[in-house]
Write a sequence for this structure.
């Protein structure tokens, strides 16, 4: 297993917006200028890849497939932790065709030593990968979205499979159809999220587990920019262009915001997190995590 941060991205050759399975997707916006849109998409994809590589990451690329444009978003392909991948099962037929291609590629990754295990969800159980299953590096548990594209019943399967606690969060808006478009934890313990995407019980659960000083609540205008669909590599945050308010808040806490033009992918309801999958994510506690966790347990106990 490599120690270099490694992300999976999908070749954008077949990316387009040709159907609608979430409120962001309007094929007419793409079809008005398809060649121009595709050129822009390839350019923006390359910029994200280059930014990750310049920050020290390695990028593995899975080939896209004709007629499966949303393969461009491999975050939904699987949940990966400690070299173990649990493959997704998609809700919509438009994405179900991705499953065998991703599965075959993940088997290749296992053979190449990037993964040690590749497993399947039980037949008929819908869960859409890391888009609805986000690892919290300091709390060392998963935040798991359900209610739009992933089934609540998958939470128990994920907990048993990986051996770490799961905190379910109910998504109540079709516009925020995966947890990754409205929520992300950071290595300093901060959690950035849009409260309007979540049920009141889920908002209360976040408040119970995350202290006031570590909660960063985004407004609707910020969530609409999909800048919460972000990737972090250490204290670098790769994100769609957001608001000065959010950027200032993050930078005041020591993070560096790398804002990218991701407009072609926002047309599908995706951003930087959707476009990547962290293949070497580890459950190992980070420096200072023990003290932080003890404080956190006192707060929620």
């Amino acid at each position: 297993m490599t120690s270099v941060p490694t992300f999976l991205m999908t070749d954008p050759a077949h990316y387009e917006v040709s159907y609608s399975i979430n409120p962001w997707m309007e094929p007419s916006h793409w079809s008005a200028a398809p060649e121009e849109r595709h050129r822009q998409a390839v350019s923006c994809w390359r910029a994200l890849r280059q930014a990750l590589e310049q920050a020290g990451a390695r990028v593995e690329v899975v080939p896209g497939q004709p007629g499966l444009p949303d393969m461009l978003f491999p975050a939904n392909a699987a949940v990966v932790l400690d070299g173990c991948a649990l493959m997704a099962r998609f809700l919509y037929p438009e994405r179900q065709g991705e499953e065998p291609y991703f599965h075959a590629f993940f088997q290749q990754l296992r053979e190449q030593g990037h993964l040690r295990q590749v497993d399947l969800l039980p037949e008929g159980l819908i869960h859409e990968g890391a888009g609805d299953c986000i690892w919290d590096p300091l709390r060392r548990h998963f935040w798991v979205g359900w209610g739009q594209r992933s089934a609540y019943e998958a939470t128990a399967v994920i907990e048993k499979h990986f051996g770490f606690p799961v905190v379910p969060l109910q998504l109540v808006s079709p516009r925020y159809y995966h947890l990754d478009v409205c929520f992300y934890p950071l290595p300093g313990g901060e959690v950035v999220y849009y409260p309007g995407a979540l049920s009141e019980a889920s908002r209360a659960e976040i408040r119970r587990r995350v202290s006031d000083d570590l909660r960063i609540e985004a407004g609707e205008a910020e969530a609409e920019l999909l800048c919460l669909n972000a990737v972090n590599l250490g204290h670098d945050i790769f994100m769609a262009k957001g608001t000065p308010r959010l950027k200032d808040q993050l930078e005041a806490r020591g993070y560096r915001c790398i804002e990218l033009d991701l407009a072609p992918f926002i047309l599908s309801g995706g951003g930087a997190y959707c476009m990547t999958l962290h293949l070497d994510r580890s459950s190992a506690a980070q420096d200072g995590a023990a003290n932080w966790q003890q404080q956190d347990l006192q707060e929620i106990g």
Summary: Residues 287-301 have pLDDT under 50 and may be disordered. The radius of gyration is 18 Å. The chain has ten helices and 15 strands.
